Amino acid sequence: xxxxxxxxxxxxxxxxxxxxxxxxxxxxxxxxxxxxxxxxxxxxxxxxxxxxxxxxxxxxxxxxxxxxxxxxxxxxxxxxxxxxxxxxxxxxxxxxxxxxxxxxxxxxxxxxxxxxxxxxxxxxxxxxxxxxxxxxxxxxxxxxxxxxxxxxxxxxxxxxxxxxxxxxxxxxxxxxxxxxxxxxxxxxxxxxxxxxxxxxxxxxxxx
Length: 207
Fold this sequence. Notes:
Pfam families: Sortase
Number of domains: 1
Protein name: Sortase
Keywords: Hydrolase
GO molecular function: hydrolase activity
CATH architecture: Beta Barrel
Shape: globular
Organism: Methylorubrum extorquens DSM 13060
Order of helices and strands: HEEHEEEEEE
């Protein structure tokens, strides 16, 4: 085989190897993009909580809702705390995708925490509510409302249900709180199931 023929054959083999490696390179690139997105979501939520804390502090001080940033379409309405875990988060009005991107949301149509019925807060499993799996029966949950009323709940249990079959009635007797997030907690793709942590108002707690 002449030198030109050998070079041509080598070039074709190199081209075939390059095409064979292309799917692997695309997979690596896609993986890097997904990793970047996974890191960005918690980082954005953490930064947002700093701004939400400032807005909620202004709300308490001035008595009127304060937007966390000028173009925000929601306002902070409460601050929820998990004392045993040393965590607390500002809760936004509404449970739209825009609201949940920055913090827990108070689900529309449910009462204020501590009022008659079932108040429902929802958040993503990879941000503020990643700790729901660590809450145990008997744990305290505190809620400081924008009207300066602070209420304390006690966890009574948890269960998993489809998003459209939770059985939650906002007008149920008693004063309850339910925290909801996607299930399983370690999944990376959306699913129809939700983890529901249920709590009841602690009547023995000091106001």
